[in-house]
């Protein structure tokens, strides 16, 4: 494959017809929206550098290591001139938000992680889309991306008209809220591009005020070091003690900023069976999860994105949630049984949890109650 930019001999009419076909093929492959954009993200470089300079990426060294490459997608696949941006809904039927958040003895897992890992499924579908395009025009060259390379997928999705960037930094769509995954297909065809949609957040700051740890430090600006998703997934060491009580029963990720968003009243449920909740993860009892062996963790979470954090971080997250639960002698016993059998990092969190349980400290906040009320009023259909 040549690294030289290739200009295929297609007329504007043929390119428009192909773009229309691509969107139809995308829908047939299970993508709820497909948009096309050029690859110029230069306007985002300064903002990205400022975010890195502030250290908001925390221990995610890969963010800094790749630097401005994230804003230069053409360098990831030389010859590419367009990105086909796609979205796929993941909100499952009977997501159980209110039930799980309302019961401190249950473990809350971000809804995207309840089923199978989305990366392989979406990448396979994007590859199929690329193959369809290549069958229509043999000189097509493409490469699919689903969190598989340093690429700014949200700015690309925004340019491609899939939605606008909300104040929580996620992509929002008027017809579908934000409960969807994003993926991209870089391609060498100069297809006609779609136009961005108008921003719809207005003066609303619900996502900023509901964030348990105040991680959304300003409109469109996230300090990942305070974000519960970062703390429970990306952070490999000790969770800062001052943030632990604010995490409640969230053991993998956090959906609060999406749950409170008014636009998610229009969210669409997923049609993908792979995204439906696994038996072990649907409103699970914290103590039951805590009693898993490492072998059970690996076996029961095979094919799940959760498994990538490793057993020690899984126990760390559960210990924090147990410490935040309503005081209970059974929880104290369960924590004591594992105490002394783990590494120093996990032991630190067990000691913290035991101290809170013994002191009778529970975490039930007005903010959480407000969130649950909003969830009960604003959920789409059967979610």
Describe, in short, the structure shown.
With 383 residues, the chain is α+β, with helices and mostly antiparallel strands. Helix content is 38%, strand content 10%.
Please describe what this structure looks like:
The protein has 15 helices and ten strands. The protein has about 375 residues and is an alpha+beta fold. The protein has helices spanning about 10-30, 45-55, 60-65, 95-100, 120-135, 155-160, 205-210, 230-235, 255-260, 285-290, 295-300, 310-325, 330-340, 345-360, 365-380; strands at about 35, 80-90, 110, 140-145, 165, 170, 180-185, 215-220, 220, 250. The chain starts with 11 loop residues before the first helix and ends in a 5-residue tail after the last helix. Helices cover about 40% and strands about 10% of the residues. It has a four-stranded antiparallel sheet with strand order 1-2-7-4, sandwiched between helices. A two-stranded parallel sheet has the order 3-10. Strands 5-6 form a two-stranded antiparallel ribbon. Helix 13 runs antiparallel to helix 14 (about 345-360). The relative contact order is 0.15. The chain folds into two domains: about 10-95 and about 115-185, no CATH class; about 205-380, no CATH class. It is elongated, with a radius of gyration of 22 Å. Keywords: 4Fe-4S, Cobalamin, Cobalt, Cytoplasm, Iron, Iron-sulfur, Metal-binding, Oxidoreductase, Queuosine biosynthesis, tRNA processing. Pathway: tRNA modification; tRNA-queuosine biosynthesis. It comes from Idiomarina seosinensis. This is Epoxyqueuosine reductase. It catalyses: epoxyqueuosine(34) in tRNA + AH2 = queuosine(34) in tRNA + A + H2O.
């Amino acid at each position: 494959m040549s690294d030289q930019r290739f200009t295929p001999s297609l007329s504007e009419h043929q390119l428009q017809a192909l773009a229309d076909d691509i969107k139809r093929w995308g829908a047939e492959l299970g993508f709820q929206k497909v948009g096309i954009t050029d690859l110029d993200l230069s306007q985002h470089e300064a903002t990205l550098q400022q975010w890195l300079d502030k250290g908001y990426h925390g221990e995610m060294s890969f963010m800094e290591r790749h630097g401005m490459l994230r804003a230069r997608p053409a360098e990831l696949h030389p010859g590419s001139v367009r990105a086909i941006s796609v979205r796929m809904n993941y909100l499952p039927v009977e997501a159980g938000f209110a039930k799980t958040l309302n019961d401190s003895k249950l473990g809350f897992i971000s809804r995207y992680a309840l089923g199978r890992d989305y990366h392989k499924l979406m990448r396979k579908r994007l590859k199929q889309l690329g193959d369809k395009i290549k069958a229509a025009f043999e000189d097509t060259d493409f490469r699919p991306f689903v969190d598989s390379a340093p690429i700014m997928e949200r700015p690309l999705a925004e340019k491609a008209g899939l939605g606008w960037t909300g104040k929580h930094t996620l992509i929002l769509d008027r017809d579908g809220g934000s409960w969807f995954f994003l993926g991209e297909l870089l391609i060498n065809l100069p297809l006609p591009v779609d136009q961005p949609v108008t921003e719809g957040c207005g003066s609303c700051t619900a996502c900023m005020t509901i964030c348990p740890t105040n991680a959304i430090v300003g409109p469109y600006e996230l300090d990942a070091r305070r974000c519960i998703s970062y703390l429970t997934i990306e952070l490999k060491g000790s969770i800062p003690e001052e943030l632990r009580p604010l995490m409640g029963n969230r053991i993998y990720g956090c959906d609060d900023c999406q749950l409170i968003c008014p636009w998610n009243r229009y969210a669409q449920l997923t049609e993908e069976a792979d995204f439906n909740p696994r038996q072990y993860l649907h409103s699970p009892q914290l103590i039951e999860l805590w009693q898993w062996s490492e072998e059970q963790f690996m076996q029961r979470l095979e094919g799940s994105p959760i498994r990538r954090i490793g057993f020690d971080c899984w126990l760390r997250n559960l210990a924090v949630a147990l410490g935040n639960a309503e005081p209970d002698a059974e929880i104290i016993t369960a924590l004591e049984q594992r105490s002394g059998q783990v590494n120093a990092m996990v032991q630190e969190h067990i000691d913290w949890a035991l101290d809170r349980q013994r002191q009778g400290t529970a975490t039930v906040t007005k903010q959480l109650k407000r969130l649950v009320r909003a969830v009960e009023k604003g959920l789409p259909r059967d979610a």
